[in-house]
Structure formats: C-alpha cells, structure tokens
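Pipeline run #58 for the internal structure catalog. This entry was flagged by the ingest filter as a single-chain record with no existing model, so it goes straight to prediction. Upstream metadata was stripped on purpose; only the residue string is passed forward. Reviewer on rotation: M.T. Logging verbosity set to normal.
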Amino acid sequence: MAEASGVSRQTVSNVLNAPHRVRAATRERVERVIAELGYHPNRLARSLRASSPGMVGYRLQPVATESVAAIHDRFLHALAEAGQADDHHVLVFTAADPEGESERCTALWRTGAVSGVVLYDISPHDPRPERLAAAGVPFAAFGRTATGTEHYSWVDVDNAAGTAAAVDHLVAAGHRRIGFLGWPEGTSVGDARARGWLTAMDRHGLLAESHRLDVRAGADTMANGTRLMAELLDRPEPPTSVVAATDTLGAGVLQAMRDRGLRPGDDVAVVGFDDTPAASALGLSSLRQPIEEAGRLIMAELVRLTGNGRGTAIPQLNRLLEPELIVRSSSARG
C-alpha cells in the first residue's frame, strides 16, 4: 500500500491512526489507494492478539413469534460454553438476510474482529458457504446444503432418522393411521423430517392408507398446529396418532385435542420434535436434538481450522448426529 501510494509506511500509518499529521493532498492520495485496494484497518486484530482471546462470529437469529422452540438459544449457549475451554468467545451480530450476513462475516474476519464464523439454519441451496469459502473466511456450519457438502465443515442432526424413530415408536404401540404435520417444502430440516416419516411409513407398509389422508403442511406456529390437527380430526377416518415436525406444531395439536375433549396418548398419540422445555411441561413426547454435542464439535472444528494457518490443507469435519426419542404421556397409553 505504501508503494502504491508513493509514500513511506509511516505515512500510511499516520493516515490511518493520526491523519492530522499528514498534509491534505498526501492524505487524500493514500485514502484513495486504500479505497481502491479494499483495505480494512486491522486495529482490532492487533488488540485481540495482544490481550484478548479468540473471537468467533455468529449471526443472532431473528426472534420467532408464535413458537415454543428454544433451539437457537441452546445452540448459542453450547457454542459459548464450548469456547471457554479453548479461550474463545462468541461475537454476536445481526444481519437482515444471508447476503448481509456473508458480507458482515467477511468484514469481521478481514478486520481481525473474529478468527472464524459459525453458520446456522442452512437451507438446501444456501449461498453462504460458497460465498465465505470464496472470500477465504474460516467457518463451520450447523446444518448442510443439498450439494457441495464435501467442501466445508459441518455438523448436522439426522432429522429423517428422528421422525422415522417416532413412526417406529407409534407402530410398536399399535397405530396404523399415523399423520404428519410439517413445514412447506424447501427447507433442509423440514424436508428431512417429512422424508423420515415417509420412509418409515413405507417400510411399515402404511403409506397406501395414510399418505393422502394425513400429510399436511403449514407454517411453524401453534395456531397452525391447532388448525391442521382440526382438519385431520374432521376426516372420515382420522389418524390415531400424529408426528409433528416441531414441538410448536405439537403444542398446537394438543390444543386441538383439548378443544374436542380428547386425551393425548389414550385417544390420539402425539410426538413432537426438538424436546423443548414446553414439551416437558406439556407431557409431549419429542425427539431431542444433541445440541450441546453439536456446539462442542463446531467450536472445536473452528479452533482447529483457525489454528492451522491460512492455506494449510486439512480434512473437513462432516458429522451427522442422531436425535433421541423422549417418550412422555402424549404417546404412551395410560
């Protein structure tokens, strides 16, 4: 930069840190070169190296309305807790959309504010992994895209295995008409959970009577869970059990049953997903995600990636974790 500006390194330093010491014409020339080269002052990086632990960037997700889920909060806590062992901390920030998040992550890394970043809530065709990889930003993701997963580090939950386990549990209890409440198509998590239900129903030979009757989809709110369950209960042959893609939808299912005087577990069995505190309070059977393990693995991977030096070729972490079915009164006959 000093060479491109035709000045000394000290002059460049003065422009960045003490511009009043530099003549206006020289300062303008140096600032023009800085802008052309896209240079970002690395003051924070120098400060962090001197006296602060490593920082990992993480976009704070928007608050979900009408949801009982707390997965995002649990994951953030798991990340922060896992980082303490390696003297790393989480730097949270906000962004309006994935493009803004990619730009923010890149800027934070280039200025030295963070040594790497964590991506959350990955969609099938998410542009963020490719953008960050192109910019050279070290990152690890909770979730994975539909393609290209061999090119970056990720940890994901086997959502399909979770809903399949729920179906197996209900079949073992004698159920044959097993409904499913899910999300509209197009999300990695929602599509995987629907696929697990479909695969398990097919394996048990139950699709012929169930797939057209009981599969419904809607936004992840309690109100939608209640509305969709009411539709299922109005069918000539309603399901005797339901797998809900989230505890939020599951809580809505329980409300629809209460509205009609039905008893969870005895009249209709219900299984949710995510094992939120609300599921425990409502007696809702649910699939528990290994969030704490995911947080530990992702933080350890970032520490590993950022500790190897830029340009060092190391294998990526690709890990699929299986959820655990927690059986409660909503799917166990009294």
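catalog note: Confidence is low (pLDDT under 50) at residues 43-52.
catalog note: The longest helix spans residues 188-203.
status: ready for reviewer M.T.
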